[in-house]
TrEMBL record:
Protein name: Outer membrane beta-barrel protein
SUPFAM superfamilies in the record: OMPA-like (SSF56925)
InterPro entries linked to this entry: OMP/PagP_B-barrel, OMPW
Species annotation: Flavobacterium fragile
Keyword tags: Signal
Taxonomic lineage: Bacteria, Pseudomonadati, Bacteroidota, Flavobacteriia, Flavobacteriales
Length: 220
């Protein structure tokens, strides 16, 4: 009986010490599990295409848009980030046998989820770079067909690579600089039957945009 009581007391003491140690650790650092950022995002496609029937290549316009993202920290170093934003791009087939063809415009919604590793460069934890990689799924919507009868884009999965840093202003607010590369490909079908009867042009398009962002964030 005495051995059982002694064992229970020892386990209780170990549990109390473990909880106290965790509490001290959490109170002694700035580990906050959530952060949110608002960024101005420049989107610059690094595009190329294989176009059937008429040949040529593709030109996709650059754009600047607002972007919102949320980050959850599993530990002080490992986190997951969800990026939300939508962009409009003008599209043109260039150097085809028919010359340059206006393909109108398309909106892209590419929610992207990355896993990140955050570095702490000093005890002050003011400058915090990070690297990340993940996946994205791009929706194409609100298509305007320009000079042709219709353009269809297939929604597609892609991969993402990421590099950036947070510059802490205090223990809550920070400035963020971020660069991502999406590796994104889509199949496009152009209905140009208004230009030549029965003309349907398939294209395999690599969009592969660079996403360059600057903004502010808050930890909570």
């Amino acid at each position: 009986m005495k051995k059982i009581v002694f064992a229970l007391m020892a386990m209780s003491l170990m549990t109390v010490n473990f909880v106290n140690a965790q509490d001290k650790e959490e109170k002694s650092n700035d580990f906050k599990k959530w952060q949110v950022r608002v960024r101005a995002l420049g989107v610059a496609p690094d595009e190329s295409a294989t176009i059937g029937v008429i040949g040529g290549d593709v030109n996709i316009s650059n754009t600047i848009v607002p972007e919102l993202d949320f980050t959850y920290f599993f530990t002080k170093n490992f986190a997951a980030e969800l990026i939300l934003g939508t962009t409009k791009h003008n599209v043109e087939a260039v150097n085809t046998v028919a010359g340059n063809v206006d393909l109108g415009s398309v909106w892209l919604l590419p929610p992207t989820l990355t896993g990140q590793y955050h570095f702490y460069t000093s005890d002050s934890k003011v400058f915090k770079p990070y690297v990340g990689a993940g996946v994205n799924y791009t929706f194409f919507y609100n298509v305007k067909s320009g000079a042709v009868a219709d353009v269809k884009y297939d929604n597609a999965f892609g991969f993402a690579a990421q590099l950036g840093f947070d510059l802490m202003l205090d223990d809550k607010f920070f400035i963020n600089v971020d660069a991502k590369r999406l590796f994104l490909n889509t199949d496009v079908t152009v209905d140009a039957s208004n230009l030549a009867p029965g003309l349907i042009v398939p294209a395999d398009v690599d969009i592969n945009p660079w996403l360059l962002g600057v903004g502010v964030g808050m930890k909570f």
